Amino acid sequence: MSAREEILRRVRSATADVNVSDPALDVPVHWRYGQPLSTPDVLADLVEKVEDYKATVVRVSDAEVGAAIVTALRGLDAASVVLPDGLPDEWADAVLDGGLAVHRDDPELSHAELNVIDAVVTTSAVAMADSGTIALDHGPGQGRRALTLLPDRHICVVRADQIVSDVPEGIARLAPALRARRPVTWLSGGSATSDIELSRVEGVHGPRRLWVILVDA
Amino acid sequence: MLSPGTRVALFATCINDTMKPSIPIATVKLLERLGCTVVYPSKQTCCGQIMTNTGYYKDAVPTVRNYVDSFGEFDYIVGPSGSCVGSVREQHAMLARWAKDAPLEEAATAVSGRTYELTEFLVDVLGVTDVGAYFPHRVTYHPTCHSMRITKVGDRPMQLLKAVRGIDLVDLPMADQCCGFGGTFSVKNPDVSIAMASDKARHVRSTDAEYLVAGDQACLMNIGGVLHRQRSGIKTIHLAEILASTEEEVWVA
Amino acid sequence: MSPTRERLTPEPPSWLGIPPFPEAVKEALGKAEQRKNLRHATGTIRAKRVARADEVDNWEELRTAAAQIKDRVGRHLDDYLVQAEKAMTDAGVTVHWARDGKEANRIVADIAKAKGVDEVVKIKSMATQEIDLNEALEAEGIAAWETDLAELIVQLGHDLPSHILVPAIHRNRSEVREIFRTEMGTYGTPAPAGVSDNPEELTAAARTHLRDKFLRSKMAVSGGNFIIADTGTLVIVESEGNGRMCLTLPETLVSVVGIEKLLPTIEDLEVFLKLLPRSSTGERMNPYTSFWTGVTPGDGPQDLHVILLDNGRTNVLSDPVGRAALRCIRCSACLNICPVYERVGGHAYGSMYPGPIGAILGPQLRGLEEERDRALPYASTLCGACNDVCPVRIPFTDILVHLRHKVAEYKSSKHPTVEGGIMKGAGWVMSDGKHLASVQVASRAAGKLYRGKWIGPMPVPLAGRWLQARDVEAPPTETFREWWKKNREGGQK
């Protein structure tokens, strides 16, 4: 008997006492999926929660994003930056005008090349205020996963209409991307550890600094 | 609120009956003072948790049967122990089910539903928090795990204690952590048990209290045993004893 | 492979040398530094957990939903496994099945050999700890590098993990510094000369040490927090980014996942991703969560394998009471709240699953043949603190009592025991008030002998264990039932 057949046989024999075949009828789940929170100011909540992770958050208007990116790069002491495909041209122009070394992922940069680039600028897919979480679905403007992992600083642009109150709404918004088999990455602050005496240290392997630019509607 | 003279069956518990009769005596006096008619069915013994929690279901089932026989006829069964009442309520039906004794399971479920821990009975059934007690001492309260988490007496003991005249009630640090008794745990794992009991005793001593009060004599025996070994001078007292204490007759533990 | 070949990775001690719990705790209780480290760490994380749980208005409803979702999966596991296998296969994942650890280890080693790699980077994973994958790979000439900071501390320290989430919880900063200073250089980039015991400096040393390994490794091994049966999506929850490194950079990724880790749909994640970080690290959300559904061309590993591991899980599932242990999402809230764990740490439990979850899961996964496993259900005072913090509402104390019953049955099926005799006697005494009254003659006699005194240390069996640190007040000369007879019966008041 193959391991697969053997394990399935064991499972069936272990659950021989279960006599309702429809899982939903056998164990009803008392939960209303996708509920929002009644947060009075969702944007302010996101700012508070992201800042709690020691990340930087700035709020700007649509027209100010390019300049805000340059300010962020300077604020993070970044001299080089990778810009994924799909970022608005005016942002890229602003960065170029700012005198930084700009890299594009075309042709694909090697891991070693990415490892020595100081920063990455991306857009995002969804942000969840209550937990201070930003989700990337690695669509246009967000790059493949390595781009937001190897450079040490991540500048992430979040639009106001991408912000939801809490995780359940966030999952609902991300479900189509997940069902389309896109990889998804959630960021709640920069990387961190509490492995030594439970004292939190920001910045381990992922980008050590996260800078969020919030674009008010 | 009950009518005066309501019949209440006292579940004394085996440890109180044998080792600390002052606790059920205090319970009787308190309930009588509050207008109840207390009955003591002498067939009663024990909740059986020492056997149940050591894994000997077969030897615990006769206690379930005996509990049902002893208390089946009463509407109110009151025990001065969060742990023993918890065992009756949370384990008796399970034991009967294990014994495949459906009539016993039904009876045990019914009787355990009428079983109250003392403070539940006072606050929820009699509707009193000020029982007219007087106890002019510095006291700290240990909530005991089974009172808190199995029987879920909540803040009822504190409501009752706060209404006691003359009492100087002081918070116990790390109050919600177990004292390390755990029934047979204290003999099967004596080293951890002692480590926990000595920490609990240390917290009790840090309060400068004269008395440590709780709703479970087993825990009091454990912590009190350490406090006495250390010659700390701190005494243990059961909640029922403080609540039974009056200006006319101050309880001496 | 030559038996004298030098090891590739630091040699760990074996779990097998650890005696049963009541004996193992003696050494643990005497470790002053460890006691202090554990007290500090568990105290810190308990306070964080409660603060973060209290922020969520519908926390109790979330816990109920999580328990129900997990029960649904367990009770219909065959359907969900078949569904998950198909979804993953359709997404380009090679799905393997492993009856036990040996079979899973073989599969991982074979994949590594087929790829021609002699080292793998690892994400912290309880499943691979459980099957001792690192040592199996070491024996095949493949180095497995732990990349989680705490796992790195444990691995470099030739140590065993003592906590599910923070495996080096028993170590403090100066011990970590010493391990990094003496061991890092042997296995890669050394710690900077003069590294201090500041956690930030130590963390930076780990970052540098591991960066080379991330950039050169061709294969990674992970566990998995969740697999979505409906879509075949794997989810890994982490903090440091070592997970993302392993999940993103190598060409091949093998995930060893227990068969109970399934969730029915994507939407079910909203329940678990709210509960897990708050219960586990006491954060609103962990820094990084990665979701992947099969191979994404041009992004991340192009060769994905998932090994669905049984290794005793179907034994757990076969017990209608004990199976609730399979709801566990490895948050470790039960460890952090446990007063026994706080004092003895993880090693005394003799397995990588310590604390309350270890006491109910270990004996069910492994069976009761070993004394060590028969002792675990008794490694608890039944205080119930674990019941209240568990995000999936595992009824720990009920399962502990249930397993004690199984142990008692196991022991008495072998031969009569002293304990069995005592319990039988107690059962008889407590079956009727008359029986109890008859033995109370003895307690009253002792009461008369000691009259009001306290009983101190005495070298008597069982009672001696109690009396070694506590005095006992002498029993009274009159029991309650006698008092009642004298003072209440016959109408006197």
Automatic annotation (TrEMBL), chain A:
It holds the Pfam family LUD_dom. SUPFAM superfamilies: NagB/RpiA/CoA transferase-like. Residues 45-215 form the LUD domain. Gene3D superfamilies: NagB/RpiA/CoA transferase-like (3.40.50.10420). This is Lactate utilization protein C.
From TrEMBL, chain B:
Residues 8-87, 139-223 form the Cysteine-rich domain. One of its GO terms (molecular function) is oxidoreductase activity. One of its GO terms (cellular component) is cytosol. This is Fe-S oxidoreductase. It comes from Tessaracoccus aquimaris.
UniProtKB/TrEMBL annotation, chain C:
Keywords: 4Fe-4S, Electron transport, Iron, Iron-sulfur, Metal-binding, Repeat, Transport. Residues 83-309 form the LUD domain. GO terms for biological process: lactate metabolic process. Residues 404-487 form the Lactate utilization protein B C-terminal domain. Gene3D superfamilies: Alpha-helical ferredoxin, NagB/RpiA/CoA transferase-like. This is (4Fe-4S)-binding protein. PANTHER family: LACTATE UTILIZATION PROTEIN B. It comes from Tessaracoccus aquimaris. GO terms for molecular function: 4 iron, 4 sulfur cluster binding; metal ion binding. It holds the Pfam family Fer4_8. Transmembrane segments: none annotated. Residues 325-394 form the 4Fe-4S ferredoxin-type domain.
